[in-house]
Design brief:
This protein has 18 helices and eleven strands. By secondary structure, it is α/β, with parallel strands linked by helices. It has three domains: 128 residues, no CATH class; 99 residues, Rossmann fold (3-Layer(aba) Sandwich), CATH 3.40.50; 165 residues, no CATH class. The strands form four sheets. It has a five-stranded parallel beta sheet, sandwiched between helices. Strands 6-7 form a two-stranded antiparallel sheet. Strands 8-9 form a two-stranded antiparallel ribbon. The radius of gyration is 27 Å and the shape is globular. The chain starts with a helix and ends in a 5-residue tail after the last helix.
Length: 482
């Protein structure tokens, strides 16, 4: 076994000094992005107001503004912590707010606020956010593609839980992990075996750490009891910088959970927040819905017109189909869709379910048919691309739906939610949501319910933005829709 460990566990030279080099490289990229934002903001301000010329001093341009931004980036952990990329975006947004406020405060202290263009400050606030995010994304993707400056990680555990999450952890641009191998006492899942070499058992951890120099351990073994976890910590903590545990906590709302240690760290309390219980969070969510929906409808008006003409020519009849769904607080509302079925779809469905036992079983299980004979040729395309759901933007304007939320359901589906139906009733149903970005129609019904309740309990405005972005990618790939 020792020979196998030595032969397969070498850390690539490209990643050996990642923890030291990566923060420097990221800070350099951020510095360049901030300079670019300042240059762009200065040029755009002078282009729009030609009567007066504004120019930053060399000290402000090259030192003060970048220094303030980079200090807040460091305080937010953006150089030292690994996090999902949507969290990186959220952190950069906060950094941008703090930096702009601090710079304005410094201007007043130095009595230069009157001579500083307000338009420049506005442009700087906007452009710095987008350029910092873009720079981080490009750099992280380059590192991921070239396998450079990734954090070497030794995985302990190769069971079903590990197989489910390792692929995601490996590809998220914000995390940047280089899994050098795994330790497992029992039979490993095939997916884990295909991803990295087997370096031994849990008892071989010290040998592997000393042989490779790896400084980060990730324990993905939900079956470990308290004694087993304590054993790993006390054995390995003196040898590495960081030990991470990924426990199996079911559908617990971990994104809204705060941890606090008591009595010298020997007792831990977990506090779970309900973000959507606060009026200001609901107000933010509604404001984002109204802003994005209004812009979307204006931009998509030509698309609405073309689709309407196509539907009518393909199958004469109403262009928009109205179907009553269950919404917030259990109230029903007319959910709008472009008609994708023949006009007598309900009659044909009844006849089909009476004649076809297999179709009846599929309908009772999923409330959908994979090969639905009622769908028109135009409707098949609209469903495949999800364009049939565009009229739901008007449901959002009316306050009946949200851009992101649980999937709108019919009366017959309420009982399928069981104890989770109260989570569903808490929020407006969404045009998109967790299930649409996780396989859509390829996801089982029970998984949809779990995703809906997870979303409600873990809501975050940045998570909404990420789900909208993911939905666009899923739709363009035409994955899982029927």
């Amino acid at each position: 076994m020792a020979g196998e460990q030595q032969g397969h566990s070498e850390i690539s030279i490209k990643n050996k000094y990642s923890t030291t080099i990566l923060p420097i490289v990221l800070a350099a990229g951020d510095y360049f992005a901030i300079l670019l934002a300042a240059f762009f903001s200065e040029a755009l301000r002078n282009c729009l107001i030609s009567s007066t010329y504004f120019r930053l001093s060399w000290l402000s341009f090259h030192v003060i503004i970048p220094f303030v931004y980079i200090v807040f980036m460091q305080i937010s952990g953006l150089y030292t912590r690994r996090m999902q990329f949507w969290r990186v975006i959220s952190k950069i947004f906060n950094v941008n707010v703090y930096a702009v406020v601090s710079l304005v405060f410094l201007m007043y202290l130095n009595q230069v606020a009157a001579s500083t263009s307000r338009l420049f400050v506005i442009f700087m606030a906007i452009s710095s956010f987008f350029l910092l995010v873009a720079m981080r994304y490009i750099m992280k993707k380059i590192f991921l593609y070239t396998h450079m400056l990734q954090i070497p990680v030794l995985v302990m555990g190769a069971g079903k839980t590990a197989s489910l999450i390792l692929d995601y952890l490996k590809t998220d641009a914000g995390l940047g992990y280089d899994f050098i191998g795994y330790l497992e006492d029992n039979k490993a899942e095939q997916k884990v075996i295909s991803m990295m070499p087997h370096l031994g058992k849990f008892s071989d951890a010290e040998t592997v750490i000393k042989a490779t120099g790896v400084q980060q351990i990730m324990v993905i073994a939900p079956g470990l009891n308290n004694e087993g976890i304590q054993n790993i910590v006390y054995r390995l903590q003196p040898l590495v910088r960081r030990i991470s545990f990924i426990p199996d906590m079911g559908t617990m709302p971990l994104a809204t959970m705060d941890m606090e240690s008591l009595i010298d760290g020997h007792i831990v309390t977990f506090t779970i927040r309900n973000n959507l219980d606060h009026w200001y969070n609901r107000l933010i969510k509604r404001a984002v819905d109204l802003a994005l929906t209004s812009i979307g409808i204006i931009c998509l008006l030509p698309v609405f017109l073309l689709i309407s003409i196509w539907i009518y020519k393909d199958s004469p009849g109403p262009v928009v189909f109205k179907h009553y769904r269950v919404g917030r607080n259990g109230k029903k509302f007319p959910c709008y869709k472009f008609r994708s079925m023949c006009v007598d779809a309900d009659v044909k469905l009844k006849e089909l379910l009476e004649k076809d036992a297999e179709a009846k079983a599929e309908w009772e299980k999923e409330f959908k048919l994979k090969n639905d004979p009622r769908i028109t040729s135009s409707g098949a395309f609209l469903r495949r691309t999800s364009l049939d759901e565009l009229p739901q933007l008007f449901n959002v304007l009316k306050g009946e739906m949200s851009l992101v939320g649980p999937r709108p359901i019919i009366d017959a589906e309420v009982s399928r939610y069981g104890k989770y139906i109260e989570d569903f009733y808490m929020v407006r149903p969404g045009i998109t949501g967790m299930w649409q970005t996780s396989g859509r129609s390829d996801v089982s019904y029970d998984e949809r319910v779990q995703m809906d309740t997870w979303y409600v309990r873990n809501w975050n405005v940045w998570f909404d933005i990420v789900l909208i972005w993911r939905t666009i990618a899923i739709v363009l790939n035409k994955k899982g829709a029927y």
